[in-house]
Amino acid sequence: MKTEISCSRRKRDFLRGIPSHCWCGNPVSVFVSKTTRNPFQRFHRCEVARMREGEAHLFKWLDEALVEEVSMVEARQTTVEEDLEAMITAEFSGTNGTREVRQNTGCVAAI
């Protein structure tokens, strides 16, 4: 049971955001829907799926992929901000409130 949970979690994480390739390893391209239900809506699709209609290859609407990608970037930014705040707090944690000089504190960058 535990392996099923970890496999589904990996699959879910693999499918988040803007896809670059399908689970089968083939590249993903952007196409435009020509249906009456979703006219001109763009989507990501595995290139193999075009040739093999019956197989379950990657399909994802472009707008959903962009929303997921933005939320992932926001989560990363929050983590970086929290790490930076923790570094600042740790640096000013001297007994008399003065700034301690620390070696190898590293470099922090945000997108």
Automatic annotation (TrEMBL):
InterPro entries in the cross-refs: Znf_GRF (IPR010666)
> Which key words tag this protein in UniProt?
Metal-binding, Zinc, Zinc-finger
Give an example GO molecular function.
Answer: zinc ion binding
Looking at the record, the residues that make up the GRF-type domain are 22-65
Name of the protein described by the UniProt record: GRF-type domain-containing protein
Q: Which organism is it from?
A: Eruca vesicaria subsp. sativa
